[in-house]
Amino acid sequence: xxxxxxxxxxxxxxxxxxxxxxxxxxxxxxxxxxxxxxxxxxxxxxxxxxxxxxxxxxxxxxxxxxxxxxxxxxxxxxxxxxxxxxxxxxxxxxxxxxxxxxxxxxxxxxxxxxxxxxxxxxxxxxxxxxxxxxxxxxxxxxxxxxxxxxxxxxxxxxxxxxxxxxxxxxxxxxxxxxxxxxxxxxxxxxxxxxxxxxxxxxxxxxxxxxxxxxxxxxxxxxxxxx
Length: 226
Description:
This protein is an alpha+beta fold and about 230 residues long. The protein is built from two helices and ten strands; from the N terminus they run αββββββββββα. A hairpin with a 5-residue loop joins strand 4 and strand 5 (about 95-100). About 30% of the residues are buried.
């Protein structure tokens, strides 16, 4: 029950932020990823790279461990594993679109019951960019967060009803807060998990659903008349 209350509270906070902040802007989205929660870092030749001429932001990392519940034990990610995020922004840092194919891809193997055989493998999670935020902290450390719409992967069922939320720290970073110039980061780390879908992206109720709701509202009146 405590976990449910926490998740409801996070959804309510997201709704309030969406109403008060209005359109997307080049600030943090304040994403707090929830379970299943994956932690990632980066290896040699991984990190973030931004090309101002094209507006393409590319990020690569090393997925390390997953928590299916919070609090809970960590399950390692093995096998051929990788993490990539790739999309386009304008000079203000606003998302303008994704790349051909998946904008978010997570690969690896996860043995959730420790029986020696992976329960999830290959493409674990895929998504399309929905939102992006950033903040310049110091001369070499920055933070970014992301929202991706789930588009596939063997873990997709665990994200049903949610987006993919990413909160990431960039180290050895040359980002100054401007997307009018190139920047890189040679070390990234962060968390990936479920995040509420923005209210503006939730489909409006269909006619059948509204009709059913109307019928339910008339039941008390009908009972009084019988």
